[in-house]
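Are you able to produce any protein sequence you like plus the matching backbone structure tokens because I've never seen that pairing?
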Amino acid sequence: MQIGSIIEAAGQYVKAQYQQHPHPDLVYHNLEHTQQVVQAAEQIAIHYRLQEQDLLVVMVAAWFHDMGYLMGNAREHEEKGAAVAREFLQQQQVPEAVQQQVAGCIMATKMPQSPHNLLEEIVCDADLFHLGSKHYKERSKLMRQEAATTFGKELTSATWAETSLLFLENHEYFTDYCRVLLKQQKAENIKWLKRKLEKKQEEAGLAAAQAATLAKTGKTRSEKVKAEKTKEEKPDKEKKQKRPERGVETMFRTTSTNHIRLSSMADSKAHIMISTNAIIISILLSVLLRKLEDNPNLILPSFLLLATSVVTIIYSVLATRPNVTNGRFTRDDIERKTTNLLFFGNFHGMTLDEYRWGMTEMMKDANFLYGSMIQDIYHLGVVLGHKYRLLRIAYNIFMFGLIISVLAFIIAVVFFPVKD
């Protein structure tokens, strides 16, 4: 089962469905939202370093979680999305257990969200990732527009702000990663909603006072409507700032993913070298060495081939041998920003409370956070460079040693035959 190809196929399938079944009323639950959820799910999954099968479950669930909206079934879109995902996975010949996990992750996003394991928690948090992002304002406007179209009822700004504020204040992320990462921005979004609601309430009170004044002074109804209309048509002058943060996060996510894949490829190459040369050594010891007494001319070629295999295995093992540090950090390390909490080797010896404190302190400081991510990517690159350098040596030894050994066997057989 090729995990990467199935995830890619899921993305292509969902994109094709949105293209083949356009739904203009879905201004929020559209392909853009699905892609944002997929990106968020991948970001959270990378943090938790999920195994390949678990990553497949999360990513496929993220792609299919809102497919039910395309079928015109908004109220039960989770059930329809889970069913479509299962059909797709059956076509990909994915095991039934994985299909059930994907369906479970999609059903967990049904409001109120009810995840039962880490994979379901990741998908739920990815679905509402925007609540703690700087894109919340624009996403909230689209959600309001879609809700008005779906239910056929226009909601006032004050009513929508009040409903959104209540939802945000009662919402909690399930994963520790999202709770820490999105806490500050989510708080800012709540403050923005409170200010907006207060403003709308003040405007409503002012409008009521103006109405009373108009009634007393005898102003005509047309003048009153004109004044209210002029006030409502004032443009929103909030300037949208350019946000490089999203591009930076995408860069970090892409780079980390590429490093992890390259590391996995290096381990696979080393495994191939170890397995191949182990077979060669077993054949030499079990078959060829028994005949050296009768064929002394083959002693040197056999020794060359044996030495080549042994040295190749040594370098391949060195390329995959783990190097784990003591796994502890101090408060001084955090205050001086000299430790990288994103690498397990720096915290595996700590308690959960100590690590949670360190991560919280890091999340408070953007420079410390981005610095740790840069440091993590740098050390991954250093490890990769060391792995591939040793692998290159192993492959060179194997290639040239094999050539020399074969030439030695040919020379020994042709020019130094055993005399009867």
Q: What stands out?
A: Confidence is low (pLDDT under 50) at residues 236-243.
